[in-house]
Amino acid sequence: MTRPVQGATGSRPVVVVGDVMLDRYWRGQTGRISPEAPVPIVRVTGCDERVGGAANVAANAAALGAEVTLIGVAGDDADADRLEVLCREHGLSPRLLRDPRLPTTVKLRVMAQHQQLLRLDFEAAADELPGAPPALADTLTAVLETPSIVVFSDYAKGALRDVQALVASVRAAGHFSIVDPKGRDFARYAGADLITPNLAEFEAVVGRCTGDAMLVERARELCARFQLGAVLVTRGEHGMSLVPARGESLHLETRAKDVFDVTGAGDTVCAALAWALGRGEALERAVELANTAAGLAVAKLGTAVVSAHEIEESLGRRARRKSSIVEGEALHAALREARRQGQRIVMTNGCFDILHVGHVRFLEQAAALGDRLLVAVNSDDSVRRLKGPSRPLNPLQHRMEVLQRLAAVDWVVPFDTDTPRELIAAILPDVLVKGGDYRVKDIAGAQEVLAAGGRVLTLEFHAGHSTTDLIERSSQAGAAGT
After folding, report:
1. Active-site residue 267, yes or no?
2. pLDDT tens by residue, 141-185
3. Which of 148, 150, 258, 437 is placed for a possible disulfide with 461 were both Cys, Cβ 3.0 to 4.6 Å?
4. Which residue in the list 180, 267, 353, 410 is annotated as catalytic?
């Protein structure tokens, strides 16, 4: 796993370093084509401006409640003045290093009927970019007086040309670093605790990945090659995958219900990670929060911030629901209502004779793949046929009641057949999951789910945790004591 985020009492401050820019929007209506050229005519009726790039990361972290310092490089011009004003409106403490050798980067988007028609970039050409001002490293050192979460937001505009030295100094001082990378040279980010490439950026470095297993393997190779703590690959409509240098990987389905604009979604992910890690969350939990934040961000138009209240409201929908044991028509009615609300159904099954930590971890990961988790449980007769006459140790009702009390579980349903294939075929969940000791082709119901357009996934097997192992160890301990 990555280095633990520890050392500070209470929340750690967030420091965002990178390329800042001004996002400008011209909005209007269009209804006809220009007689001069085959392009739409937009009658501009409004204009607004927002912080962009590293400044958007900082604004998102501040909106979540983090104490944020922004360090960036801008031109010495009116656009930089405007950017500073907007930063302060977001509650930021901007430390913009003015460089008269370059213009402040401005991205102008022309919008009509909530659609982006055109983007114009005002910036220095790549071959004209000067190196980062020497004062940037000194400014970063000056603000890192207490243990902090440092985010490097690289947009390849010159501020992070010497990022490798910056990452090394942050690591040496004991701070946790997150890098939103750019380009194909990941060696520049060696030693970072976490990097967050999107899938296209990741595959540009490691090659095309044809499945989760290949993605995990190549992400681990990156971690080993560049001494990275973990790689978080954001995968658009397919969610995100966290692969630590050591330990279990985590694959999360997207939380987005509606996608209006993906502008700044990566900024939101980095901001939410920094905020969550700063307040002491484990990395896996921070990724879940970031995944939720990204789903909220893409439902908004343009670069936008997501508040902690919005994340809590989104996550609270599951927490406020009371799980239940359901069968027959009651189950199908509950499923119809969930689907009417656009919720994704995840399903798994098992005996769950003695609930242990492996079960809990598996069910929490399964729940993160959608909105509702349905757990099908073998009846007592079914367990005896599968496991032998001495099983189950706990009767069906007790096993279901224990599962019902887990926050990750929404519904529990019993089945009496040797496999749940018939039940799965009747339910057709959006996602069917089993432990990593199964192969997809061997999972009961997989064929039916795939044929209906659903997904079938295996989650990593938690070695050393099984009911059979627990029973054997208990028997051996009992024999040793006689």
Report:
1. yes
2. 999 888 899 999 999 988 998 999 999 999 999 999 999 999 999
3. 437
4. 267
